[in-house]
Input
Amino acid sequence: MRTKEETEKIALADDLRDKALEAFGIALTETYDLKSIRMEMFRRYSEFCDYVLAMAKVLDMLLFVTMLNLLNTARNYYADMLAKRPAVKADETTPAK
Output
């Protein structure tokens, strides 16, 4: 007979295994739908950032604080790059006839 704690650990391990298998299956799926690829990448990136932020707040370990600083630096760099791009006018996007 298993204790409640053992049952919860087994359920958690099964859940983690299922998520890993799902991620592995998605990684092996050949798809050319860029919208779905971008959405999946953004979802995973957001989960990762949320995890790093939560761990940095709760544990205050140097590893997570450094990772959070690295993420913020990269975000700032790319935001600056996008801000420096010249704006595209509506006339230029339509092809000439």
